[in-house]
């Protein structure tokens, strides 16, 4: 079995399922991607999926489906998707090891592509400890 590009928390899975349930019978899940924009250079995107793309990576948890756009994979490797509710806002939160900075408002981020050689070393070290 391979590894997931990213993971999602129970709260994120619950919110994705609620979005799908409230979006009609054609909704299948959400697609996560990135686009250029904002003062820090990049923004996360989340869109409803009615027609899954076979090229996207699929992450599932507790019946929730999240697809990751191929162009975003190197920027999202190792990311955890969460959903947070506070007094001031609610929304998806991305804990991304490839994020180098964020703007003050938190709407945009600076991302670097994942270091695949370093990732391979970490996976090898984790496998040696088993």
From TrEMBL:
<dbReference type="InterPro" id="IPR000361">
    <property type="entry name" value="ATAP_core_dom"/>
</dbReference>
<dbReference type="GO" id="GO:0051537">
    <property type="term" value="F:2 iron, 2 sulfur cluster binding"/>
</dbReference>
<protein>
    <submittedName>
        <fullName>Fe-S cluster assembly scaffold SufA</fullName>
    </submittedName>
</protein>
<feature type="domain" description="Core">
    <location>
        <begin position="6"/>
        <end position="107"/>
    </location>
</feature>
<dbReference type="InterPro" id="IPR035903">
    <property type="entry name" value="HesB-like_dom_sf"/>
</dbReference>
<dbReference type="Pfam" id="PF01521">
    <property type="entry name" value="Fe-S_biosyn"/>
</dbReference>
<dbReference type="InterPro" id="IPR016092">
    <property type="entry name" value="ATAP"/>
</dbReference>
<dbReference type="GO" id="GO:0016226">
    <property type="term" value="P:iron-sulfur cluster assembly"/>
</dbReference>
<dbReference type="GO" id="GO:0005737">
    <property type="term" value="C:cytoplasm"/>
</dbReference>
<dbReference type="InterPro" id="IPR011298">
    <property type="entry name" value="SufA_proteobacteria"/>
</dbReference>
<comment type="similarity">
    <text>Belongs to the HesB/IscA family.</text>
</comment>
<dbReference type="InterPro" id="IPR050322">
    <property type="entry name" value="Fe-S_cluster_asmbl/transfer"/>
</dbReference>
